Automatic annotation (TrEMBL), chains A, B:
Name this protein carries in UniProt: K(+)-insensitive pyrophosphate-energized proton pump
Catalytic activity: diphosphate + H2O + H(+)(in) = 2 phosphate + 2 H(+)(out)
Family annotation (Pfam families): H_PPase
Membrane topology recorded in Swiss-Prot or TrEMBL: Multi-pass membrane protein
Major place of residence: membrane
Residues under site feature: Determinant of potassium independence: K481
Organism: Krasilnikoviella flava
TM region positions: 6-29, 62-79, 91-113, 134-161, 167-185, 238-256, 262-285, 297-319, 339-363, 384-412, 418-441, 486-504, 524-549, 602-620, 626-645, 694-714, 720-740
Oligomeric and partner information: Homodimer.
Amino acid sequence: MLTFGSSSITIVAVIAVIGLAALVCAAALRRQVLAAPEGTPGMQEIAQGVQEGASAYLSRQFRTLALFAVVVFALLFLLPGDGGVRVGRSIAFLVGAGFSAAIGYLGMWLAVRANVRVAAAATRPDGRADGARIAFRTGGVVGMSVVGLGLLGAALVVLVYRTDAPAVLEGFGFGAALLAMFMRVGGGIFTKAADVGADLVGKVEQGIPEDDPRNAATIADNVGDNVGDCAGMAADLFESYAVTLVAALILGKAVMGEQGLVFPLIVTAVGAFVALLGVLVTRVRGSENGLAAINRGFYISAVVGALLAAVAAFVYLPSSFAELSGTAELGDATADPRVVASLAVVIGVVLAGIILWITGYFTGTTSKPTLHVAATSRTGAATVVLSGIGVGFESAVYTAGVIAAAICGVFLLAGGSLWLSLFLVALAGCGLLTTVGVIVAMDTFGPVSDNAQGIAEMSGEVDEEAAQILTDLDAVGNTTKAITKGIAIATAVLAATALFGSYADAVSTALGEVAERGAGLVPAMLSFEIVSPVTLVGVILGAATVFLFSGLAIDAVTRAAGAIVFEVRRQFREHPGIMTYEERPEYGRVVDICTRDSLRELATPGLLAAFAPIAVGFGLGVGPLAGFLGGAIGAGVLMAVFLANSGGAWDNAKKIVEDGAFGGKGSEAHAATVIGDTVGDPFKDTAGPAINPLIKVMNLVSLLIAPAVVMLSVPADANQAWRIGIALVAAGIAFGAVIMSRLRAARVDREQADETAGVPAR
Amino acid sequence: MLTFGSSSITIVAVIAVIGLAALVCAAALRRQVLAAPEGTPGMQEIAQGVQEGASAYLSRQFRTLALFAVVVFALLFLLPGDGGVRVGRSIAFLVGAGFSAAIGYLGMWLAVRANVRVAAAATRPDGRADGARIAFRTGGVVGMSVVGLGLLGAALVVLVYRTDAPAVLEGFGFGAALLAMFMRVGGGIFTKAADVGADLVGKVEQGIPEDDPRNAATIADNVGDNVGDCAGMAADLFESYAVTLVAALILGKAVMGEQGLVFPLIVTAVGAFVALLGVLVTRVRGSENGLAAINRGFYISAVVGALLAAVAAFVYLPSSFAELSGTAELGDATADPRVVASLAVVIGVVLAGIILWITGYFTGTTSKPTLHVAATSRTGAATVVLSGIGVGFESAVYTAGVIAAAICGVFLLAGGSLWLSLFLVALAGCGLLTTVGVIVAMDTFGPVSDNAQGIAEMSGEVDEEAAQILTDLDAVGNTTKAITKGIAIATAVLAATALFGSYADAVSTALGEVAERGAGLVPAMLSFEIVSPVTLVGVILGAATVFLFSGLAIDAVTRAAGAIVFEVRRQFREHPGIMTYEERPEYGRVVDICTRDSLRELATPGLLAAFAPIAVGFGLGVGPLAGFLGGAIGAGVLMAVFLANSGGAWDNAKKIVEDGAFGGKGSEAHAATVIGDTVGDPFKDTAGPAINPLIKVMNLVSLLIAPAVVMLSVPADANQAWRIGIALVAAGIAFGAVIMSRLRAARVDREQADETAGVPAR
């Protein structure tokens, strides 16, 4: 029996304290942000509207999701497992979900207060540096909170459950991932429905600028930035932290025993220092490109993080696996644990650096691919769309390629031991995440400065120079947002690869238990070999789930944006005074429509993600389910990066034209890039980022149900009936949700057709 | 030792004669087509230009590809294998490639003569039925030739090589698939570069109609339809036939022995009758929707095909597997071979029917999804693009889902025997292909009537009614083209799934040989388990190859279309008389640019497809290579259907608006759908259809190299060096091609920038 010594308890307790300290740092940074001046009354009034809309949306979203969480909480009790662990896992699920929600709420809460302060700062003499500092510190609060809550949660679970912690942590990670997925989807639909709707009527039809106060959708657009890009992103990163840590701890216990439950926490604690360092050293100098500042901050913190992790490995770990109490079969592992562990962390850090570089190259305003997309605007919108898709595909391939190379590198390190390689993959994920602090902080630039620009424009109280400052900050945000998504999806691949090991372990443990009872099993259901037709069917279905999920998310945005367009058009038509500034548009109605539609639409992709693996697992078996996960990971990483980067490239291609290239604002080239940008909106901010939590949710669901699937794979009549029944119910729920969504779409189509019928053609 | 009796020889000889008879039927149909009147001298002059351009392109393409074929021919000799088989395989490779090229050339040759006859027919009193008949018979020639050459080639190989036929047939299938892939890519780039280029300048900038003779790109556009949609499609379908047959024969030998080498040929011979029946019964009645006629023709021939195949099974096969001489381990297979074989064929036929229905539903002009895409044109081009992408994703998921369901169904039939299930999957593929005759025939509607419309428009000698007839035929073609692609990709999945079995067999045979020599092997390289990190890396890389291939094809079109746009603009600028009909545009220059660019661009995706599996196989091992193929199949089927169906939906959404919906021609809604259609062009006619041969090429390459990979996986220094060396060279070639393509893209960007610099802004 594995023991958990007092020195381990001390270290984990210290790590919990470090987690608390990170939260204190976050509180201190928050105070700094709130201390900045709040701007003119005009600005404050607008900010007030955004604050109310964002709070109202998140509160309603949480009420909806609470119901869902309670159902899952109950379902978790139905799964087989030891009593105490089962209770712990279900509670940990709620805690993980709660932390995820809290981080999201915090991100939103602060962002809606930071935006007006950044707008105010931009008008002051040293506006560029000041504005950047406030926006950046806002991100710092999110980053430190992510790290703090992640560390605290994991450390507490390890303290309470000791060697049973991995099973309980599955619940923690699952809760975090599930909540984050819903927040990504719901927030993503909200923000892009409002954004696309506002642009289509405002910019394209009426020819009024973005964020013009006459556009009834502007407040909703700004609310969206906060509930999607801030709240959703924060929850997503927390989930990445939590799940990667969980994977590392599960495998750490198997490979290193007691020390394996502590070392991943140490690496993550190093990440807390690195995040703080990153927040403190990253600042825009004078008029330099914001991306240069990020790169500097990133490389400094990455090098420090890698060094500290290596030091920790050499101080904490012994020089031979023989001195460790892991139970996994390592073969003739002659490797030095200190060396392989630190090299794995370094591979993770280097991977983060390469993804940063690739994403910056493909989406930055000064790099060739984006310039190429901008140049294709000379031949119209179609070529802009096509070239952006080309850029997205290509960058996705390179990103997937370097992630694959990192896994191969880790595999070589492990010298042929499967279990060691899986653990090292998880450690590489932890290494990757040590750098996330600085990236989150810069990521937050985007939505906060976008909002600040909106408030500035609507209040009409900001001069051109200040507006230019805010535009520049926003352009940097486009690239950092793409980088964050690249990093997030890399963690998804690494965590999923590692969790595959836990999955195989769970299956073989369950097989052993069934074999003890002397029962035979359906062999095809258990084959993990990819050459088996049903395993290959699993791969196809996994890839299909990613496509369906993406399509549903994009469709939801198109549909909701259509509703916004009709509402804004209606307001312009029925209140002609709006155009002449004599009437004030009803901003609230648009916010309400966005809220209603995104809450309605988030259920379908969410149910699909949760129930598809259940249907495949119980219907086809654990082998095909492994194929399903493989297909979802393979297609998912490419789809996620494709969607994020093509969206980023289109957004910045538009900025290049707006800065005067190919005819500048108002030219046909500009109109073409606006269309490209609009296509990219749901790509990069709705469907793309949601794939990261999607993969993790499906992995964790599979891990949780694996023992039950094996138990019901005994070809006795009663078991088979249960198994097929569960599969049918799950497939029915997933498919039923899709059908419901189709029916709703058909109704929306009809309603909008009716509405147009009564309207003179434009 | 397996024998090949005289009765088998007789049957196969009869099948070869049936193949010849199919070719005779094709010749008779061809004579009918050519007997139709050729139209006015004006029409003939235009048709002449198209004929010359198409012949010139294909001749140059074949010269380029001949070089490539010779290199591959030589490389095939380097692979391990028995001497006689190796020679036969290499020769069969050349024959397969030659047949593929011949079918493509024939398709083009006839289409460029049928187009003017259809245009002439449309002006006659009974124009609709007459035009449809000629276009349809043209397709009949292609369909019968595909079936005839496929049967003849496979039967001859079986007659000559008897029980060694499977190994030789690998070469036949590989040759067919490789040539078809290049023709799909090259022809696809040609046709869409010309089409997109013509539309961007003509329709969008100058506001002149499609196919207006003042547009210098019109002849190239019409040439493109023939070298892409006709020649490429014909080669592609021949390749689908050949590879599916090859897979069935390889597995048939293993599972059923002698009879297994004959039965798949019998099923395919049934397909020849069904194709002829389909061509004869399918005709458009009065003013009915063309799709209704296809559905009727399809269902009649499908039912007949399934019945005949079942009869053949019951006549030819024994009632127990014990009476068959297969060598594969079938477990306690108590199934009746007659029953399972005929049910597998029926599953294939039903699968074809469901794909027909799904594709028709998602891309037809009267069905909800396409109407929805058309409706989104009211909110502009961006929503059209987004809704089309949503439709594409969704339809891809359903198509992949039914293919997966068919595989599961076949798997259940096999009662748990892996080998039997693989053979039955291949038989289902043969069943699917019995229906292809009628679909090819209707598919050809599209390009031929598109061309006829072009000739009619350019000659100015066709009235409005005749133009409407041609437009209607073209709309049907959009849907049938999408259906053909769906069927083709389904054969790819079934063939690839079946070939997976041959792959595993080749690996285990090679492993046995290595084990006899007493050498150890690198275990990680051999793990087919998807939970192994390197196998998962294979899955990611396989999916990545599909994305990269698609991106390269789309980029190539964007780039080549850009060159066309600049050329056409230059002609309008330097020859103002063109616009007033006083000067004749230089059509030939645009044809030359298309020819040059597509031949230059086809190398990159082609090299990637051929060398990526070599790099993965030798670099990572046979297990990861299996993962690679799985990832490519999973991502490939979804990507192929997504690209084909979103393109089809956009094209028909445009037709809906042109028919008067949402403002009709010239409205903003119309402009929005034109943009959607242009985005869809390279999707549906370049990247999408090329994925089908891509998957097969990668599968066959893997199958061919598997023994060599195993031989070099012995961890002795010399072997390792060879293995890694080969992997690096292959990766270098694949990656080098991509880099070259990037550099060319950068140069094109610069040139076009220079050209714009000297031009006044439009």
